[in-house]
Amino acid sequence: MRSMVAGNWKMNGTRQDATELVTAIAAQEDFQCDVLICPPFVFMQQVSSLIENSHIKLGAQNVDWHIQGAFTGEISVSMVREFGCRYVLTGHSERRTLFDESDDVVATKFKAVIDAGLTPILCVGETLSQRQASETHEVINRQISAVLDHVSSDEFSRGIIAYEPLWAIGTGKTATPDLAAGVHAGIRQFVAEVDCELAENMRILYGGSVNGSNADELMAMEDINGVLVGGASLKSKEFIAICKAAGAN
Ligand code: 13P
């Protein structure tokens, strides 16, 4: 399966940072992997122009699930689609914890993204205390089931899953390749209970303190089909190193 590297800039950077970063990445040869950038909404037009004619794809960090209407401050799927955005992160842990997005809301957003013909990247993962209580698989299976309750398996198959353990996000504590691969295998097994073929073809990314030094060993694992990168996606050298590692796996 072709690897994917997705950069989630979160709420960082200036217009100038965005231009410099994207220009540096787009100037590289094709990385032989799928490269995705998810900038803040206000930089989307700018990033979209800079990646025109390049191998880089554009994603959104979030969307509202309503089609349109009186939802002050929200952005719809069709709006981001107009800028060439083809992917949307759904259920990032920061959305779940800081903005109270429930499993149900995440599932509704996943469905809205599918309905608009875009690819949702469903983020799942456990907290440190849930891991210590051996609840990792239970938590993740619940997060996935909530989406499966809302969409058909065919619709689910058009999405991507990103395993992002909360204790590894922005902490510098990456999951070991073995630990991450074990969880990915568990996710695949859980999805296989719904549909074997779907599980086999499902892309599962790992996220949490991925950088230019650890990306290679993570993506060398069979069940890790790419990475979702936060902090290191803001540094062109790091991000390019990760993309090269992805291309080599
Ligand atoms: P870091 O790479 O900064 O740990 O963030 C991971 C993440 O949340 C990507 O969505």
What report would you give on this structure?
The protein contains twelve helices and eight strands. With 249 residues, it is of the alpha/beta class. It has an eight-stranded parallel β-barrel with strand order 1-2-3-4-5-6-7-8, surrounded by five helices. The longest helix has 16 residues. The protein is globular, with a radius of gyration of 17 Å. Bound molecules: 1,3-dihydroxyacetonephosphate (13P). 1,3-dihydroxyacetonephosphate binds next to strand 8. 1,3-dihydroxyacetonephosphate (13P) binds next to strand 8.
Total number of strands: 8
Helix content: 40-55%
Gyration radius (Cα, Å) is 17 Å
The chain-level structural class is alpha/beta
Distance between the termini: 9 Å
The ordered H/E elements are EHEHEHEHHEHHHEHHEHEH
Sheet-strand content, in percent, reads 15-25%
Give the strand order of the largest sheet, numbering strands 1, 2, ... along the chain: 1-2-3-4-5-6-7-8
Enumerate how many helices there are, as a single number.
12
Cofactors and ligands? 1,3-dihydroxyacetonephosphate
Low-pLDDT residue spans:
none
Mean pLDDT: 96
The main sheet comes to: 8 strands, parallel, barrel
Shape: globular
